[in-house]
Specification:
The protein is of the alpha+beta class. The chain is built from 6 helices and 8 strands. The strands form 3 sheets. It has a 4-stranded antiparallel sheet with strand order 4-5-6-7. It has a two-stranded parallel ribbon with strand order 1-8. The N terminus is likely disordered.
Length: 221
Amino acid sequence: MVNDRPWLAPTAALAAILALAAVFLLGRATANTTSTATRPGIHAVGGIPVGVQDTRAGALAAADNYILEAAQTEDQNPLLFERFVRTVYLPARQQAALTQAAQNRAKNPLAAKNLAAGGKGIGFVGARRLDSYSPKRAQVTSYTTAVGWGPFVRPTQEWALIVTRLAWSGDRWLIDGLDASPAQPPVPAQFQVAPAGAKTAAAFDSALQGMTTPFFGTGDN
């Protein structure tokens, strides 16, 4: 749907997953807010997922949630996307992220048209790798896919490798970079054979009705 949709620099691979996941059907469940000793790696802060453990597992959990929250809100809810950016981006990165997002929306009127007409989408983090970790810094590479559908977008999926750079600040992980990897993402040679009726927007709407996406946990698995 668009050819450039990163937050720090234009990259086509990141664009693909974010464009297709721009209009999400699924909401998020509220994260556990128990004591520091038992809380998971993610807290909900005003509805925004925030990575709150400076550990290897905590860095993975932060990357999982930040990728999907960004994709879920950038087009669907720009005001919430701005709150997300203000909450979990390094201050020096925030304005560039917001400016790029606004430019992407302006370049992609089809996404807005599809959204207004009830278009939807869903994104997944299928796998991820902790490339590096030291207290206060981490980098995660994630294998992601997004499926989008609606009145003006036939059901489509895209795959991407996303690199998330994190910096620990105070009590949380902040985003220092969220970009497509230069490596080509692997894609299936053949998708599942299914009846034509399973490949329609109505089929997605019906099957996923009432479902929600969770905050990911501590990243232990």
